[in-house]
UniProtKB/TrEMBL annotation:
It comes from Modestobacter marinus. InterPro entries: Glyas_Bleomycin-R_OHBP_Dase (IPR029068), Glyoxalase_6 (IPR041581), VOC_core (IPR037523). This is Putative enzyme related to lactoylglutathione lyase. GO terms for molecular function: lyase activity. Residues 8-123 form the VOC domain. Keywords: Lyase.
Length: 127
């Protein structure tokens, strides 16, 4: 048995209070496009062939008190601050920065327009 061979992230599925609005935010942030809506789902295409798509549907229950998972997104070294500023301009809320916890990554934690947390991280060049 081969472990992990060929597994990639295809899509992230999100429950939302306003699926079309949240899909538009993520499409703008990630550079994808709102690719359509079908049967209560709004789809956002991946920007690149090896990227991931997103799907948004109406929330079916109460929002959890604490997030059970969040996206860690990577930007090129030296561009995190500009990426955070751009995300805030699109409607995100900057929550905090972690710049010296470990030497291999610096990140900023943000919340999307519905309060879902995500991180923008940068990794220093090797060497």
């Amino acid at each position: 048995m081969t472990s992990g061979t060929g597994i990639t992230l295809g899509a992230v599925n999100v429950q939302a209070d306003d699926p079309p609005a949240l899909a538009a935010f993520w499409a703008d942030l990630l550079g994808g496009a709102v690719a359509g809506e079908h049967d209560g789902y709004v789809f956002v295409s991946a920007r690149e062939p090896d990227g991931f798509a997103m799907s948004f549907r109406t929330r079916t229950g109460d929002r959890p008190l604490e997030p059970v998972q969040h996206l860690d997104l990577t930007v090129p070294w030296g561009s995190r601050a500009a990426a955070v500023e751009r995300a805030v301009t699109l409607g995100a809320v900057h929550r905090w920065d972690v710049l010296d916890e470990v030497p291999w990554v610096q990140w900023s934690t943000l919340a999307d327009p519905e309060g879902n947390l995500f991180c923008l991280a940068e990794h220093p060049p090797a060497g």
